[in-house]
Design a protein that fits this description.
Order of helices and strands: HHHHHHHHHHH
Largest sheet: none
Structural class: mainly alpha
Low-confidence stretches: none
Distance between the termini: 28 Å
Strand content: under 5%
Oligomer: single chain
Shape: globular
Length: 180
């Protein structure tokens, strides 16, 4: 599946503007991680872009989240993408770099956006990893962003600081699309 087809699918399946932006942020973060690890940026980007394709449909039945996306995408994307999407909500254990990256990045994008909105400038270009790390340590701040899940980035051989920095750099590249 090419990116344009994937983006059209996201825009047809997801009606919530902020959820579309979350998918774009995940795509950007995954591409930055792929570059860092010298992996296929198209595969990693598609994984991030498509990972929450079923969210609106499955939000009241979390046991189906990810599973429904896999059903929609079977035969259209590679098995590695399907496995990562199924593992990001915890249905299967993340094993590969791709799986672990998506699992850890998913909640981090929300923490970065929340941090941006708390920053005096409210723009990603002015945000830095130190500001995000400070917010990360505040348990009540963006409480829905699972800190343990984010910290699983260490399984990739990345420190939390480096992981946040890479995700932020990816998101900063598309700040206009994100409206931040």
């Amino acid at each position: 599946m090419e990116r344009e087809e994937a983006l059209n699918l996201v825009n047809s399946e997801i009606k919530t503007k902020n959820l579309v932006k979350h998918c774009l942020a995940a795509e950007a973060g995954m591409k930055e991680l792929a570059n860092y690890f010298k992996e296929d940026t198209e595969t990693w980007g598609l994984t991030g872009l498509l990972h929450d394709l079923d969210y609106e449909e499955t939000k009241d039945d979390f046991s189906r989240h990810g599973i429904r996306t896999v059903e929609m995408l079977e035969g259209k994307v590679g098995e590695e993408i399907l496995y990562a999407i199924k593992s990001h909500p915890g249905h299967t254990p993340p094993k590969s770099k791709l799986d672990i990256a998506l699992y850890a990045l998913d909640p981090l994008t929300g923490l970065i956006v929340a941090s941006c909105l708390m920053h005096p400038e409210k723009k990603l270009e002015f945000l830095d990893k130190e500001f995000i790390l400070h917010r990360f340590s505040e348990k009540r701040f963006a409480a829905g962003a699972n800190r343990e899940q984010i910290k699983s980035c260490e399984r990739l051989g990345l420190s939390l600081e480096d992981f946040i920095d890479l995700a932020l750099k990816g998101m900063q590249k598309i700040h206009e699309e994100l409206g931040l």
